[in-house]
Amino acid sequence: MSLVGEGAEFRGSIADVQPSIAGAGDYLSLLKPRVMSLVVFTALVGLAVAPASIHPLIGFTALLCIAVGAGAAGALNMWYDADIDARMTRTARRAVPMGRVKPGEALAFGLVLSAFAVMTIGLLVNALSAALLAFTIFFYAVVYTMWLKRSTPQNIVIGGAAGALPPMIGWAAVTGSLSFEPVLLFLIIFFWTPPHFWALSLYRADDYARAGVPMLPVVAGELPTRRQILLYTLILVPLGVSPWPLGYASLLYGVTALVTGAVMIALAVQVYRERSPADRASKHLFAFSILYLFLLYAVLLVERGWGGLLMRWAA
Amino acid sequence: MADKHEEGIVLTEAQKRARRSRSIAIALALAAFVILFYIITLVKGPGVLVRPI
User: Fold this and answer.
1) Nearest C-alpha of chain B: how many angstroms from A56?
2) Residues A9-40: pLDDT tens digits?
3) What percent of chain B has pLDDT over 70?
4) Band (A1; pLDDT cuts 50, 70, 90)
5) pLDDT at A192
6) 3-state DSSP call for residue A242?
7) A277 Cβ under 8 Å from any chain B Cβ
8) B45 in contact with chain A, both atoms CB, cutoff 8 A
9) Which is the most buried residue in A46, A82, A109, B8, by most CB within 10 A?
10) Is A21 in Cβ contact with B9 (below 8 Å)?
């Protein structure tokens, strides 16, 4: 029995076949390990603060599936965006534009991992977390990568929803349901994304312009971008503090959110005031924004994680 | 040309190393996948079949 059928004919020469030179490390790099680490951390916080218990192994499985699912979305992004990546300094050395992994291989890798991650979390954890994970992968790979990224300067605002969903998936893995608290965790990351990425895009504007990506500084210019960064930071900071007055977190979280939030606003004001080039201020804001999100979630994890287990242990 | 068809594709040392690295990674991932399902089935016990939507 032939796989190509009786009438089919192999038209290429055997000399045209190029065996792959991609090692396991190249495939691992398709998963965007650094992005994945932030996804795993925020999902862990969602999982740990949820008001129910989960067997540690099932919790680990949920995190593993979220990590693999996020990585698979990254691989699909690298497959579709290989042309853009090749034109940008920051991404030109990725495995697909370098030719180490062929685009079709990256696509197959992303699709297989997506299917395995969603199926496994669905079978071993619960249906809601599987549905949310599938939606997250779809949103990042299709809505953001294939549609928004190349068509609107609001790409990272709307697309940021994909990066904000992991804490909700972690919460759903434990409780099998959703409530206002995981939505608040989602909103904090959702409103954190624009100032974070626009700060980056301010000092990488040439790169984005060369690649034809309509980032806000490329399309609207630097001043409107700086204004938008300040606006989103002013929405983000009260949202970041809100778990404290709403009773989801204690004074330690409130003070941390207030102090780090004040620094975020100060840096955003600096970005707004500093006239061209805004490199220095925007680099500071970009770097601090990572620390800001990490601190908020880390304090929540310590305070609330597993019913305050870490706090009791520290005391 | 006929000789080349009979020889098939001859891999370079770099291509062989890359293939070996990919094969090991796939083997480890599949083994981990099987072990994970096995252990979770033990952990959940009969509850592994209870699947509320």
Assistant:
1) 10
2) 555 566 666 788 899 999 999 999 988 999 99
3) 75
4) very low
5) 97
6) coil
7) no
8) no
9) A46
10) no
CB-CB: which of B9, B40, B53 is closest to A124?
B40
Q: How far apart are CA A71 and CA A105, in angstroms?
A: 15
Taking CA atoms, B2 is separated from A9, A13, A301, B5, in Å, by 17, 11, 66, 5
Residue B2 has pLDDT above 60, yes or no: no
Answer yes or no: do B36 and A120 touch at CB < 8 A: yes
DSSP state at residue A94: S
Nearest residue in A to B26, CA atom: A24
**Residue A5 region by backbone torsions, left for phi larger than 0, else alpha for psi between -120 and 50, else beta:** left
Question: pLDDT tens digit string along A168-217?
Answer: 999 999 999 999 999 999 999 999 999 999 999 998 888 999 999 999 99
HEC per residue, chain A:
CCCCCCCCCCCCCHHHCCCCCCCHHHHHHHCCHHHHHHHHHHHHHHHHHCCCCCCHHHHHHHHHHHHHHHHHHHHHHHHHCHHHHHHCCCCCCCCCCCCCCCHHHHHHHHHHHHHHHHHHHHHHCCHHHHHHHHHHHHHHHHHHHHHHHHHCCCHHHHHHHHHHCHHHHHHHHHHCCCCHHHHHHHHHHHHHHHHHHHHHHHHCHHHHHHHCCCCHHHHCCHHHHHHHHHHHHHHHHHHHHCCCCCCCCCHHHHHHHHHHHHHHHHHHHHHHHCCCCCHHHHHHHHHHHHHHHHHHHHHHHHHHHHHHHHHHHHC
Output B8 or A217, whichever has higher pLDDT: A217
Cβ atoms A291, A244 nearer than 8 A: no
CA dist list (Å): A3 to A6, A9, A10, A57, A296: 9, 11, 12, 42, 55
The model's pLDDT over A268-307, given as tens digits with 9 standing for 90+, comes to 999 999 866 658 899 999 999 999 999 999 999 998 877 6
- Calpha distance A71→A75 (Å, rounded): 6
**What is the number of other CB atoms lying within 10 angstroms of the CB of residue A282?**
29
- Give every CB contact of residue A217 below 8 A, 6+ residues apart in sequence: A198, A201, A202, A205, A208, A225
Whether B11 and chain A come into contact, CB under 8 Å, resolves to yes
